Amino acid sequence: MLLRVSWDLAKAGLGSRNLTLWNMASKLGLLSLKLSTTAVSSNKVVDAAAQEGEFRVFIVAGEVSGDSIASRLMVSLKKLSPLPVRFAGVGGFLMSKEGLQTLFPMEEISVMGLWELLPHLNTFRKKLKETTEAALLFRPHVVITVDSKGFSFRLLKQLKAKYLLEDTCPVHVHYVAPSFWAWKGGEARLQNLCKFVDHMLCIIPFEEEICRLNGLAATYVGHPLLEDALMLNLESGFMSNNLKVHKSGDVFRREHGIPPGATIITLLPGSRLQEVKRILPIFLRTIEIIRNSFSELSVIILVAPNNHVKDLVDKIIQSSSLPAILVPGASLDQKYEAFSASTAALCASGSAVIELQLARLPCIVAYQTHILTELVIHYRTKLKYISLPNILMNTSIIPEVLFRNCTPGNLATILSELILDKNIQEQQTSSAEKFLGLLCPPSKNVNMLRGNLSSGIIWCPSMIAASTILSIQKQKRD
Hints:
- Helix content is 44%, strand content 15%.
- Strand 12 (344-348), helix 14 and strand 13 (363-367) form a beta-alpha-beta unit.
- By secondary structure, the protein is of the alpha/beta class.
- It is globular, with a radius of gyration of 23 Å.
- Strands 4-3-5-6-7-8 form a 6-stranded parallel β-sheet, with helices on both faces. It has a 6-stranded parallel β-sheet with strand order 11-10-9-12-13-14, with helices on both faces.
- Helix 3 crosses helix 20 (461-471) and helix 11 packs across helix 17 (408-420).
- The two termini are 25 Å apart.
């Protein structure tokens, strides 16, 4: 069986509300589709699954951001697959909601850095062995690893070696290309990935071409976080053609008893235990420095859906004299309502800065790590910036306070300026639309895929990724 997708142009006669939705969806490449299945002779991965009556997907994510991306992909695979989909692997809270029974808590492999990894090496090896054995027993048609390149690439490499003794070899897909373009000699390493990665799903525009030039099959699908804008706005009935999440900050203020004129700072200390332990105390001391300079200052902390992080945040808050409102990061509604109510944000480097751009919340990106890791980064990196908006637009539009410069005093000075200077705020918010536009799905897919908004299936980065996976050619064993 081969998944065949038929497209119906349904713009005419939609009515004014749906026309606005159409315009916004078109801008994002979020166009809906209708599905039919037809028996066709093909060598695509889904055809091999048809012989067994189910599509088995072994999927692994090791970070909170990867859990979010993977869960969206799981939803899309279930919608697009002509066969029942069965999942196994490693993931977090969001992936579990979509039917994954994780082998072990995702947090056990969520470690970033060089020096920081050393104390966890033994656990890392054990979990890698456990995951490899589970994948072999599951006999998947496709293995999908999401971000977390340290664990993901070791897993795919070990599996590829094991398949030499097997009759069949599943397709290996890695979702979210590593930042090879950021490191000296990074592009040359892509050639080694071809040995155990069959297809790369890219979320940054220029990565697909670089992968292909180095012999690695790749598809640019767009950034999955852009889906927040359409989904939340559709739910609230807000019509907008721009890439912005529209939520009411008044609702959040009323629920938490915050007066209208209060200054609200949101802290996003990250999703990994090590980074939260390092950066959250710095953020809190920063707020303590400026708290007397602003009347009725309130603090929000976005807490990642990571049990270890939740416990650590509670412990740090208890030892601080600063009251804070804790918002669960797993709730899109609460997260964006908090953003809408806020004046500014302090953000650990990572994908959270994209969410702040979607909310048009001015922010500062901060990052601190072990001194040895910092030295390696300085030696190997080719970039001037660390946050994606600054990288893609080649500008310091978002202030970055990094490494040894990341001190409460430095952050307090820059944060105070950001709160008081409307021009700086406007520069950030006005550049957000341009930045987010760079992360939209490619126009070739948007132009090719036209659908009916009433069909209930929305074409978006996650759907493009799922469709790509289903149509990948089955690899023959070497």
